[in-house]
Sequence to fold (99 residues):
Amino acid sequence: MLIKEIQPNNLHDMLIHDQNSDWTWDEADCLTNYYMDLSSETNEHVLVDILEIGHKWHRIKDLNEARSTYDNITGIESLRDIVNVVECKDTFLVSEYEY
Fold:
Protein backbone atom coordinates (compact mmCIF):
# COMPACT_ATOMS: atom_id res chain seq x y z
CA MET A 1 0.00 0.00 0.00
CA LEU A 2 1.21 3.49 -0.83
CA ILE A 3 -0.56 5.70 1.69
CA LYS A 4 0.56 9.30 1.96
CA GLU A 5 -0.64 12.61 3.28
CA ILE A 6 -0.16 14.89 0.31
CA GLN A 7 -0.84 18.39 -0.89
CA PRO A 8 -3.50 19.02 -3.58
CA ASN A 9 -1.04 19.77 -6.39
CA ASN A 10 0.90 16.60 -5.54
CA LEU A 11 -2.25 14.46 -5.66
CA HIS A 12 -3.14 15.84 -9.08
CA ASP A 13 0.35 15.08 -10.39
CA MET A 14 0.32 11.60 -8.89
CA LEU A 15 -3.04 10.84 -10.54
CA ILE A 16 -1.90 12.12 -13.94
CA HIS A 17 1.28 10.05 -13.79
CA ASP A 18 -0.30 6.91 -12.31
CA GLN A 19 0.65 4.18 -14.77
CA ASN A 20 -2.15 1.92 -13.49
CA SER A 21 -4.90 4.39 -14.40
CA ASP A 22 -5.64 6.70 -17.29
CA TRP A 23 -7.15 9.77 -15.63
CA THR A 24 -7.68 12.81 -17.80
CA TRP A 25 -6.48 16.19 -16.57
CA ASP A 26 -10.07 17.12 -15.72
CA GLU A 27 -10.71 13.85 -13.86
CA ALA A 28 -7.52 14.31 -11.84
CA ASP A 29 -8.74 17.83 -10.97
CA CYS A 30 -12.14 16.47 -9.93
CA LEU A 31 -10.67 13.75 -7.71
CA THR A 32 -8.20 16.19 -6.17
CA ASN A 33 -11.04 18.58 -5.38
CA TYR A 34 -13.12 15.72 -3.95
CA TYR A 35 -10.39 14.71 -1.50
CA MET A 36 -9.54 18.29 -0.55
CA ASP A 37 -13.25 19.04 0.05
CA LEU A 38 -13.45 15.90 2.17
CA SER A 39 -10.49 17.14 4.20
CA SER A 40 -12.16 20.53 4.71
CA GLU A 41 -15.52 19.01 5.64
CA THR A 42 -14.03 16.61 8.19
CA ASN A 43 -11.46 19.12 9.41
CA GLU A 44 -8.83 16.38 9.15
CA HIS A 45 -5.94 15.61 6.85
CA VAL A 46 -6.87 13.01 4.27
CA LEU A 47 -4.56 10.09 3.75
CA VAL A 48 -4.78 8.66 0.25
CA ASP A 49 -3.62 5.43 -1.29
CA ILE A 50 -2.93 6.28 -4.93
CA LEU A 51 -3.36 2.64 -5.96
CA GLU A 52 -6.68 2.38 -4.14
CA ILE A 53 -7.98 5.50 -5.87
CA GLY A 54 -7.36 3.80 -9.20
CA HIS A 55 -9.29 0.71 -8.10
CA LYS A 56 -12.03 2.51 -6.17
CA TRP A 57 -13.10 5.10 -8.72
CA HIS A 58 -14.54 4.25 -12.13
CA ARG A 59 -15.35 6.43 -15.10
CA ILE A 60 -18.88 6.52 -16.48
CA LYS A 61 -19.38 8.47 -19.69
CA ASP A 62 -23.04 9.34 -19.19
CA LEU A 63 -26.27 8.38 -17.48
CA ASN A 64 -27.03 5.77 -20.15
CA GLU A 65 -23.88 3.92 -19.16
CA ALA A 66 -24.86 4.30 -15.50
CA ARG A 67 -28.27 2.79 -16.29
CA SER A 68 -26.61 -0.23 -17.90
CA THR A 69 -24.40 -0.72 -14.84
CA TYR A 70 -26.78 0.09 -11.99
CA ASP A 71 -30.46 -0.78 -11.59
CA ASN A 72 -33.26 1.81 -11.37
CA ILE A 73 -31.23 4.90 -12.33
CA THR A 74 -33.54 7.71 -13.39
CA GLY A 75 -31.06 10.56 -13.09
CA ILE A 76 -27.98 11.82 -11.32
CA GLU A 77 -29.73 11.98 -7.93
CA SER A 78 -30.80 8.34 -8.03
CA LEU A 79 -27.22 7.43 -8.97
CA ARG A 80 -25.98 9.43 -5.97
CA ASP A 81 -28.33 7.41 -3.76
CA ILE A 82 -26.28 4.26 -4.41
CA VAL A 83 -22.71 5.42 -5.19
CA ASN A 84 -20.38 8.38 -4.64
CA VAL A 85 -20.51 10.57 -7.73
CA VAL A 86 -17.99 13.19 -8.81
CA GLU A 87 -19.15 15.14 -11.84
CA CYS A 88 -16.40 16.10 -14.26
CA LYS A 89 -16.58 18.06 -17.49
CA ASP A 90 -17.19 15.10 -19.81
CA THR A 91 -17.59 12.15 -17.43
CA PHE A 92 -18.80 11.01 -14.05
CA LEU A 93 -16.50 9.27 -11.60
CA VAL A 94 -18.24 6.81 -9.29
CA SER A 95 -17.22 4.69 -6.33
CA GLU A 96 -19.14 2.43 -4.02
CA TYR A 97 -20.06 3.84 -0.64
CA GLU A 98 -17.91 2.58 2.21
CA TYR A 99 -19.72 1.71 5.40
User: Anything to note?
Assistant: Helices lie at 8-16, 25-42, 50-56, 63-69, 76-80. The chain has a mean pLDDT of 87. The CA atoms of residues 40 and 64 lie 33 Å apart. DSSP finds five helices and five strands in the chain.
